[in-house]
Amino acid sequence: MKFYSRKLIKPGDLNANDTLFGGALLRWIDEEAGIYAMTKLDSKKVVTKYISEINFVSSAKQGDVIEIGLAFQSIGTTSITFSCMVRNVFTKKVIISIEKIVFVHIDSQERPKPHHKTIHNLGFTQSSKA
Q1: CB within 8 A of 112, min separation 6: which ones?
Q2: In the CATH scheme, what architecture does the domain 2-105 have?
Q3: What contacts 126, CB < 8 A, 6 or more positions away?
Q4: Domain ranges of the chain
Q5: Are the CB atoms for 28 and 72 separated by under 8 Å?
Q6: What is the pLDDT of residues 32-90, one digit of tens each?
Q7: Do the Cβ atoms of 48 and 34 come closer than 8 Å?
Q8: What are phi and psi of 52, to 5 degrees?
């Protein structure tokens, strides 16, 4: 798992319990994973297809710094799949884990389109997924 970005939890990110609002966190994850998919597929034409069960493990509070980690899982003809973990930068305590996030490469009519990438031309190997 590589951690790509960090976020400072601010007052506008909190829910009624004064902890990080799950919707804000999911927006950040979707954005980060989408950017990662775009860079791996060399295309801005990707959309979120599927996010598996989301496991909220612990909460974050105002002033906490979190980091979003992504790991390559697999590549399909039109798709790319990652797993995700978000943790507190200082305590390393896991805040959320997502087993599978799938992005699909699309054409101008928003239909799935082959991306012509393989695990090898993405720079990954089966034993060294990043």
Answers
A1: 78, 79, 104, 105, 106
A2: Roll (3.10)
A3: 119
A4: 2-105
A5: no
A6: 999 999 999 999 999 999 999 999 999 999 999 999 999 999 999 999 999 999 999 99
A7: yes
A8: -75, -175
Q: What is the pLDDT of residues 78-96, one digit of tens each?
A: 999 999 999 999 999 999 9
**Separation between Cα atoms, residue 117 and residue 130, nearest integer Å:** 16
Amino acid of residue 77: T
First vs last Cα of the chain: how many Å apart? Answer: 6
C-alpha–C-alpha distance, residues 60 and 50, integer Å: 25
The 3-class secondary structure across the chain, one letter per residue, is CEEEEEEECCHHHECCCCEECHHHHHHHHHHHHHHHHHHHHCCCCEEEEEECCEEECCCCECCCEEEEEEEEEEECCCEEEEEEEEEECCCCCEEEEEEEEEEEEECCCCCECCCCCCCCCCCCCCCCCC
Q: How far apart are CA 89 and CA 29, in angstroms?
A: 16
